[in-house]
Amino acid sequence: MKLSKQFPLNALRVFEAAARLGSFTKAGDELAMTQTAVSYQIKLLEENVGEPLFLRRPRQIALTETGERLAPKVTEAFAMLHDAMATARDSVDGTLAISSTHTFASKWLAPRLGSFHLKHPAIAVRFQASSDIIDFAREQIDVGIRWGDGNWPGLALHRLMGLEFTPMLSPKLAESAGGIKEPRDLLKFDLFDAGDVWWKQWFEAAGVTETDLDRRPRNQLGSQAVEADAAIAGHGVAILHPAFYAAEIALGRLYQPFELTRSDGKAYWLVYPENRRNVPKIKAFRNWILEEMQAAGH
């Protein structure tokens, strides 16, 4: 018997999407198929199995008991196929696609990539700078550098570094107001971004409980790196990670008026799909960045 007769792969692919999304319509949108085509593929699979896989209700579907048993096994099978194909591509495609926040990419990763290339000259690197959560099932990304609490089910997680924050501004801006003598003096200037919870946490730790943060305009510049550039240009005060801006402080481009720093408990994490753990280029990058973090004391 032909493999296609034993294993209706197209129908199984449609079933996996419908079971995961809980909707024939959403499955069709994901797979670029009409709802009629989705229903037809599900019907073919049900005939092949000999049991209904979904309960059809008005504007709603639900897995039958048979469907509940089948769905996780089909999902696992497609994950294994995806992993096998990705591993096969690695022999001809040595490009590692990394999604990272703009700040981490520019202030930590890019300056150190030379050592990665020395260890792995056959692996090219492609960056995608974004603060959005990457959907590995939809985007051609191998690994991500995410900022958060590490609560991302289904992904392999490696904590890289925590982050402390404190206000910084240009020395000239500080001098324009006669210097910064106490934390409240920072309220004389524009703050990037005044609505950021970091500001509230820092001012509370500094003993400043009455602020006008809620009434200030929210100047949202998109990333800590851009906020730092605006602060260097003298346009206001940014709340930044001191370790990222040690060079700017040493050169007198940024001024940290107070030693007080705070942390919200979040961190940078290396993430990737669990089923791609053993892909060679991912293993190489994982081992390298964890060694770099350990050497830096994180």
UniProtKB/TrEMBL annotation:
It comes from the Bacteria. One of its GO terms (molecular function) is DNA-binding transcription factor activity. PROSITE patterns: HTH_LYSR. GO terms for biological process: DNA-templated transcription. Keywords: DNA-binding, Transcription, Transcription regulation. Residues 7-64 form the HTH lysR-type domain. The keyword Transcription regulation applies. This is HTH-type transcriptional regulator TtuA. It comes from Rhizobium phaseoli. The lineage of its organism: Bacteria, Pseudomonadati, Pseudomonadota, Alphaproteobacteria, Hyphomicrobiales.
